[in-house]
Design brief:
Strand order of the largest sheet: 2-1-3-4
Oligomer: single chain
Structural class: alpha/beta
Number of strands: 4
Length: about 160
Amino acid sequence: MTTSVLFVCLGNICRSPLAHGLFAHHVQTLGRASEFVVDSAGTSGYHAGELPDDGSIREAARHGLDITDQRSRRLVARDMDAFDFVIAMDTSNLRNIRRVGSLPPERLFRIRDFDPEALEFDVPDPYGGGPGGFRRVYEMLERSMDPLLVHIDHHGPR
């Protein structure tokens, strides 16, 4: 049985593609890739069909990750039934996800709910902010991967 995880931001070109790539790499490194289905989406359709932002692609590549196989897509109601866990990049997107469909609270989180260093719970949108913003986002997401996986392992798929 596989566990499905969906990462969600606004446009699905900056934060959620990085989270998607990081989580997929994390479980692959642990030899657990076959246990997971990983995807990402945006609460808007602004960039549907587009590659991740160049800043996300470059930051991922700096860490040996290739996210160029991803394409932006809009979050849809059927995602609420298709994924075991839906992980928002910030509080605004968390609200927008709830508008698309209802999810039990044990299936919907912000990624920084799992960041052991979080003093706030939103991953800032690095769009147009230069390489430093993408680096900061990557670091936040990376810190969240182990605790997220522990949570998923503890709660399992539906």
